[in-house]
Specification:
The chain is an alpha/beta fold and 408 residues long. Helices cover 33% and strands 18% of the residues. It is globular, with a radius of gyration of 20 Å.
């Protein structure tokens, strides 16, 4: 197996439109929650979201290109551009057939669906826009990034609901391991703060109805009431180790292991005993050749829904036994909300920065847990060396995904 390293990162998030801004906000414990501005939410039970602020697509692409992309694609192109620049990747010096793209979106463009369905009802089928389909379908994030940057290798669109970002990076990892590419531009993107998006997740009773920014997204807290919809994109450059060394690339860390399972249980609820998520974590550790007791930190899926946080806790206990008490476990969603298909990718970036700086961020807003949740969920931040990080993502349909990264 070939070794795979991370050489570049890019992010568009509710607390910063670059990796530097995002990470500084994480260290300062900034939260991205505020009343919804993208539409009139006065009649909605859920009124809060973690929206991206001050995003101007013309900073990342020309106006004509921007008009042919929906928001989730614009976010992906912006994050990919930052990641490619950060990696110092010069496409003029590379074989484009050996550079691929694996960027997923959980929903594609709900905006396009809402807009064009409205036209269909009001004006008839002949008025539906000719670009409706290519604007709406979720693979267009990978497609537009490939077109924008001339990536002619394998192009993937993984869709596994809230596990999409982690699966996309994991499949890119496998692609390089098995020799199908030297470099992969990988991650997730989402822009689902729309009327139907908010209404749909509210109907599932998945969203918090709190209007207090300090208490609306509180993973692992006994008063948690659901997640807050976030948006944005996270994209990383994965590269075969010797290829990266040959061009003198800076290396953030190494992708070591990737594990996936299915609960085969329920369309929205995780398995109550946590067995599926536990097996995904153990698979990632085994893939990376790391004994469970060597791990000290997990970036949890940690959505702040009752079922997820409880069942993920059970999964960690099942996977690690007594060692679970020694783990530091946090949730980046306590600051940025749930970015759906982009969540795992942005959280992967948080893990890489934590490895780089020896810093584990606090689960912001966490005050008190409940009896069955007795692990260390990071009520405070820690300044200490982090050698390995395990990032979890769990998606509707029973998708469990874990990815293991380590310092070089």
């Amino acid at each position: 197996m070939r070794r795979v390293v991370v050489t570049g990162m890019g992010a568009v998030t509710p607390i910063g439109n670059s990796v530097e801004e995002f990470w500084e906000s994480i260290k300062q414990e900034k939260i991205g929650f505020a009343p919804i501005t993208k539409f009139d939410a006065s009649a909605y039970k859920c009124k809060m979201a973690a929206e991206v602020k001050d995003f101007e697509p013309e900073k990342y692409m020309d106006k004509k290109a921007a008009r042919r992309m929906e928001l989730f694609c614009q976010y992906a192109v912006a994050a990919a551009g930052e990641a490619i620049r950060d990696a110092g990747l010069d496409m003029a010096k590379e074989d484009p057939w050996r550079i691929g793209c694996s960027i997923g979106s959980g929903t594609g463009s709900l905006q396009a669906i809402e807009r064009e369905y409205g036209r269909l009802l009001e004006k008839g089928p002949s008025r539906v826009g000719p670009l409706f389909v290519p604007l709406m379908i979720s693979n267009m994030a990978a497609g537009n990034v490939s077109i924008m940057f001339g990536l002619k290798g394998k192009s993937l669109n993984v869709v596994t609901a809230c596990a999409t970002g982690t699966n996309s990076i994991g499949e890119a990892f496998r692609t390089i391991q098995y020799g199908d590419a030297e470099v992969m531009v990988a991650g997730g993107t989402e822009g689902a703060v729309t009327p139907v998006g908010i209404a749909g997740f509210t109907a599932l009773t998945a969203l918090s109805d709190s209007t207090d920014p300090e208490r609306c997204s509180i993973p692992f807290d006994k008063d948690r009431s659901g997640f807050v919809m976030g948006e944005g994109a996270g994209v990383v450059i994965l590269e075969e180790l010797e290829h990266a060394r040959a061009r003198g690339a800076r290396i953030y860390g190494e992708v070591l292991g990737y594990g996936c399972t299915s609960d085969a249980y329920h369309i929205t609820s995780p398995a109550e005993d946590g067995a599926g998520a536990a097996k995904a974590m153990l698979n990632a550790l085994a893939d990376g050749g790391l004994a469970p007791e060597k791990l000290t930190y997990i970036n949890a899926h940690g959505t702040a829904t009752h079922h997820n946080d409880l069942f993920e806790t059970r999964a960690i206990k099942l996977a690690f036994g007594e060692h679970a008490k020694n783990l530091k476990i946090n949730s980046t969603k306590s600051m940025i909300g749930h970015l759906l298909g982009a969540a795992g990718a942005v959280e992967f970036i948080a893990c890489m920065k934590e490895l780089e700086e020896g810093f584990i961020h606090r689960t912001v807003g966490l005050r008190e847990t409940e009896e069955d949740m007795d692990l260390n969920y990071c009520r405070e931040s820690y300044q200490e060396e982090v050698t390995y990080a395990l990032s979890n993502s769990l998606g509707f349909g029973g998708h469990n995904t874990s990815i293991l990264v380590g310092k070089m």
